[in-house]
Amino acid sequence: MTERKVTLYEAYMIENLKKQGISNSELINIDDQAIERWNKLDLDFDFNILKELAEKNEEVFAEIISEGYQVKFLTLKGLINLIQLKFDKQQDVDFTVHEDGISHLQLDKSRYPEMKQFLSPNWKVLEEDNLVTIRAVHS
Fold it and tell me: What dihedral angle (degrees, nearest 10) is formed by the CA atoms of 80, 86, 91, 92?
């Protein structure tokens, strides 16, 4: 498997575009016209960064979009935001936030691999009674 790591900012861009209905195909075929269209979505990102990522290695970028990615370093705030974006979950409704992670996340088991994939190595996942807990790994 190719290394498919992205920054938190790149993950935010990808997930926000997907949430706006942008298809994987459109994301993979990123060009200046696509960036112009996406800028009209008022998401306040520099989509040229995604274009540069795509130009660096088109094959890896296509895998990032269609098969998923790992965030290089994921903060607690980043974890919360990605859970909300990717899985349409709300803080204090669908999961509880703690000083070192989140708990009581209800997530369909079929989505577990997707969730585990984007986590950086500084997080561990605990599953119990159909609820997910994600805690920081302390060194």
Answer: -130
